[in-house]
Amino acid sequence: MQPFPATQKRLILVCTSQKNLEDPTLCGNCGGLELHAQLKEYVNQKGLGKTIRVVKSGCLDYCGKGPIVSIQPENEWYNRVTREDLKKIQEKWVDTIQH
Ligand code: FES
Question: Is 73 contained in some domain?
């Protein structure tokens, strides 16, 4: 195993867990999947798909507070993210990144 320099400058994790389709407290059942799709499309439209990786994550252990979005490596976390919130996340974490 060897460390290597990542090509991405930022990872954005969006919890999309649906380990139980009947459980509305899971992020994938309360909007996480839609947020992931919207954010990924936004990043790709900006031509930043290789710079910012938008990743579907499994459960991040904040069930009931979702959807959860985590920004790495800055380690900033957001809970109960709405479509309106996503615009703010895009402005802060996508629009400002250097290519
Ligand atoms: S399902 Fe998203 S934090 Fe658990």
Answer: yes
